[in-house]
């Protein structure tokens, strides 16, 4: 978690990503915070606990927006897919940022993610 990022659900933007994309997410998180918004994102070094999963679920439902970092890694990450599905059914605004072209990524996305992205 970077400086200025929140540890709880009360935030403006939640970033969903695969930890392989952490370098880009560090940059993105910093830019969002520089714009004066608060950010929630997972810390790749933190252990996964019941409490951390509950906190993440609240962050998804209570954030003003979710940014999904779409990459080859996140397209195959079940946790990222579940986070976006929860954001979708919670009626939270979803903003995808692709690290590769959509035609390449679409071959790796599961059907539910394609449906969610098609509705944006």
Describe the model.
This protein has a four-stranded parallel sheet, with helices on both faces. It has six helices and four strands; from the N terminus they run E-H-E-H-E-H-H-E-H-H. With 120 residues, the protein is α/β, with parallel strands linked by helices. It is 46% helix and 15% strand. It has helices at 22-34, 50-62, 72-75, 78-89, 102-106, 111-118; strands at residues 13-16, 39-40, 65-70, 93-98.
Overall number of strands? 4
What's the pLDDT, averaged over the residues?
87
What is the N-to-C order of secondary-structure elements (H for helix, E for strand)?
EHEHEHHEHH
How large, in whole angstroms, is the Cα Rg?
A: 13 Å
Tell me about the largest β-sheet.
Answer: 4 strands, parallel
**Assembly state here?**
single chain
Q: What's the short version?
A:
The protein is an alpha/beta fold. Helices cover 46% and strands 15% of the residues.
SSE blueprint and pairings:
Elements lengths: L12 E4 L5 H13 L4 E2 L9 H13 L2 E6 L1 H4 L2 H12 L3 E6 L3 H5 L4 H8 L2
Parallel strand pairs: 1-2, 1-3, 3-4
Which features would summarize this protein structure in a list?
single chain, 120 residues, alpha/beta, 6 helices, 4 strands, 15% strand
């Amino acid at each position: 978690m970077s400086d200025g990022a929140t540890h709880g659900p009360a935030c403006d933007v939640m970033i969903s990503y695969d930890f392989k994309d952490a370098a880009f997410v560090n940059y993105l998180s910093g830019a969002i915070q520089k714009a004066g918004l608060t950010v929630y994102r997972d810390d790749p070094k933190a252990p996964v606990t019941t409490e951390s999963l509950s906190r993440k679920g609240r962050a998804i439902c209570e954030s003003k927006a979710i940014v999904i970092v779409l990459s080859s890694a996140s397209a195959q990450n079940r946790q990222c897919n579940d986070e976006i599905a929860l954001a979708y059914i919670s009626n939270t605004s979803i903003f995808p940022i692709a690290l590769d072209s959509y035609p390449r990524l679409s071959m790796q996305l599961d059907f539910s993610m394609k449906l969610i992205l098609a509705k944006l």
